[in-house]
Amino acid sequence: MRQLDATEGKKGYNLGNLYSIVLDLYIAGMDTTITSILWGIIYLMYNPDIVKKMQKEIFEKLGEKELIEIDDKFKLPYTAAVANEIQRTANVFPQNLGRRNTKDVVIGGYKIKEGTTIMPLASAVLYDERVFPNHLKFDPNRFLNPDGSIKKVDELIPFSCGRRMCLGAEMARMEIFLIIANLFHHFDISMPSTGVQPSLYKNSGLTPKPDNFKCFIQRR
């Protein structure tokens, strides 16, 4: 910013831009991450076998380690796959913000004129049966190679893609992995013994949130 200020005619980045970026990181980052974790808890309550497998991997690879750190992610491919599947299934930002192309382009045989408003639809990819068969099923194995290592899947785009993808994507990925891994490392979270089970219904909104729910939490 100071370098640009010192260059005549180049003042595109200023304190106003910086404030906007910090605000985006704080508001957008908190809302989407919290919503993803809430959905993750719900999905894992419905899939206790996946939780047991994840907890077993953590114990076998890290033993009694108190705090799981981001460097441990490479030792925990199944847990990392669970975090990926939470992001895919939760789909907390199904439709990105509108953009406009700066010149005429042809994509897939379709002519798109300059100035056309384009709104990427992430859910069209995250729920594509050709890429993720039985897409409504919560299945971390989608992100594992046959040898059990983590598999890179280009179609996992919960933060959109390209130059205009989410600014805090890497931070959100780390947060979701660390919170889910540490939470289920220290606690068992299950359906309440009485009352209504958590709903899988997604409420409409910029980020589809779950209904309020109750669960039973017990220290392991």
From TrEMBL:
Keywords carried by this UniProt record: Heme, Iron, Membrane, Metal-binding, Monooxygenase, Oxidoreductase, Transmembrane, Transmembrane helix
List the GO biological process terms.
organic acid metabolic process; xenobiotic metabolic process
Q: What residues does heme bind to?
A: 166
GO terms for cellular component: cytoplasm
List, in alphabetical order, the Gene Ontology terms for molecular function in this entry: heme binding; iron ion binding; oxidoreductase activity, acting on paired donors, with incorporation or reduction of molecular oxygen, reduced flavin or flavoprotein as one donor, and incorporation of one atom of oxygen
TM regions (residue ranges)? 25-46
Cofactor(s) listed = heme
Q: What is this protein called?
A: Cytochrome P450
Q: What is the lineage of its organism?
A: Eukaryota, Metazoa, Ecdysozoa, Nematoda, Chromadorea
